[in-house]
UniProtKB/TrEMBL annotation:
Metal-binding is among the record's keywords: yes
Gene designation per UniProt: si:ch211-212d10.2
Start and end residues of each Rieske domain: 17-117
Gene3D superfamilies in the cross-refs: Rieske [2Fe-2S] iron-sulphur domain
SUPFAM superfamilies: ISP domain (SSF50022)
A Pfam entry, by short name: Rieske_4
Superkingdom of origin: Eukaryota
Record-given protein name: Rieske domain-containing protein
Species for this entry: Gymnodraco acuticeps (Antarctic dragonfish)
InterPro entries: Rieske_2Fe-2S, Rieske_2Fe-2S_sf, Sol_Rieske_ferrdox_dom
Length: 134
């Protein structure tokens, strides 16, 4: 099952569907870092929690902490990731925090056994060579 819809508050980015990889392999880890062709500050986390995929910016909106290393918890039916640096929480569906912070989220879809993320730039599970960043 995929998550996200184009009208969710944290999802304002227009983009193309980016093939990330097969559901079978990607569903084996709770979080994977997807490298963005724009570089470090634009990387995205792909979460797999309770049978659903979620995608959001990989760096915490507060101080840039690595959200892929954060704890994931469910409270009152809301799945949240907690930044490992300062414990800020972000709703995996909307990107909203218990504070005024907002994390960018991205649509995810499953098609023909593959996971796709809607993003304005290229995404990869492997770092981009320095000369291919654009």
């Amino acid at each position: 099952m995929a998550s996200g819809s184009g009208d969710e508050e944290g999802n304002t980015e227009v983009g193309s569907w980016r093939l990330i990889g097969p559901v079978e392999g990607l569903s084996k880890k709770r979080c994977r870092l997807m490298y963005c062709s724009l570089g470090f500050k634009s990387d995205v986390c792909l979460f797999y929690v309770k049978g659903e995929f979620f995608a959001m910016d990989a760096r915490c909106a507060h101080s840039g902490g690595p959200l892929c290393e954060g704890d994931i918890e469910e409270a009152d039916g809301v799945l949240q990731v907690f930044c490992p640096w300062h414990d800020y929480d972000f709703n995996l569906r909307t990107g909203k925090s218990g504070t005024s912070l907002q994390q960018q989220v991205y649509e995810v879809k499953l098609e023909d056994g593959n996971v796709y993320v809607k993003h304005a730039n290229r995404l990869s599970l492997e770092p981009f060579p320095a000369d291919q960043k654009s």
